[in-house]
Amino acid sequence: MIQLHNLSFGYSRKKLLFRDLNLSLPPGSIYGLLGKNGAGKSSLLRLMGGMLYPTAGSVTVAGFTPGRRQPAFLQELFFVPEEIYLPPVSLNRYIATMGPFYPRFSESQFRRYLTEFDVPQENRLTALSYGQKKKVLISFGLATNTRVLIMDEPTNGLDIPSKSQFRKIVASALDADRLMLISTHQVRDLDHLIDGIVILDESEILMNHTLADIADRLVFSTLSSVTEPDRVLYAEPSLRGYSVVMENHEQEDSRVDLERLFNAVVTNRERVRTLFQHSVSRTS
Q1: Which residue of 42, 108, 132, 274 has the smallest Cβ count within 10 Å?
Q2: pLDDT at residue number 279
Q3: What CA–CA distance (Å, rounded) separates 23 from 2?
């Protein structure tokens, strides 16, 4: 559904932001794109949306080259940017104006999401708070039923109850033919939502795996002391000792902690890369 092949990009030819990125994301999943501030997450998403153009290599989304901005492509992708804009019109006018651009747009679905988000539907869009505007755009994007939905920092501006509702609504909108890619630096906002994770750091994709694959290879636990340093990939002090990420030698069951996973990957990149390469070759 989304393919990057030897993708390079930079805002100047002397300094590339990405070099030779390769990535394949199939439909039927919700992926989280994680990275530090300034890692290039937004630029990568804009390359996928056709708003930026590769310096070298290629991007393919739903069978289209995004940079060509073909009408058929624009009908299959919706992009929720970090910085949003809504026009000074009523909700009804917004639906009448924007809905026809998306053949599978559902007004009833859109209004249902707004109700679940507790967004008033009688006000002009510009009279809404920033968080409410964000919910309007998220709800509209979900209701377009495009094959690809990209969201850049969608939970910025949402309060804690709204973030919980966001996870519930987004999960309910996934189907086997749809791919959702959500970029955030607020790692915990993706808990219990995503089923795959892409970690971008220092111009590299360090990880692209499903959570099930990660749970098979790593174990997330709490230890009173770190007694197996050769097995531990990451450890941080906690009230009960140390919260750790370890190689899963014993095939233990544990829930993937996204924040600890991210820290383990960016601080122990070569060891994690070797572990996953070895595991893949061992099981293939």
Answers
A1: 108
A2: 53
A3: 8
Bridge partner list, 25: 2
Q: What's the structural domain count of the chain?
A: 2
Residues 229, 272 within the same domain: yes
The Cα 268–Cα 166 span in angstroms is 32
Q: Where are the beta strands (DSSP E) in 193-274?
A: 196-201, 204-210, 218-223, 232-238, 241-247
Within this chain, do residues 71 and 167 fall inside the same structural domain, yes or no?
yes
Residue 32's beta-bridge partner residues?
182, 197
Residue 283 pLDDT = 40
217 and 249: one domain?
Answer: yes
Structure tokens belonging to residue 282: 């061992």
- With 0.85 as the threshold, say if the pTM is over it: yes
- SS3 for 95? helix
- For helices 160-172 and 130-143, angle between their N-to-C axes, nearest 10 degrees: 10
Mean pLDDT of all residues belonging to the chain: 92
Q: Residue 188: what pLDDT?
A: 87
Look up residue 249 and give its two tokens: 């030698």
Out of 138, 170, 202, a domain closes at 202
Any residues with CB less than 8 A from the CB of 81 and at least 6 apart, and which?
152
- Tell me how far apart the 2 most distant CA atoms of the chain are, in Å: 63
How many Cβ atoms from other residues are within 10 Å of residue 11's Cβ? 11
Angle at Cα 187 formed by Cα 4 and Cα 79, nearest 5°?
45
Domain around 83 = 2-202
Q: Tell me: do 225 and 163 sit in the same domain.
A: no
Residue that is last in its domain, among 158, 183, 202? 202
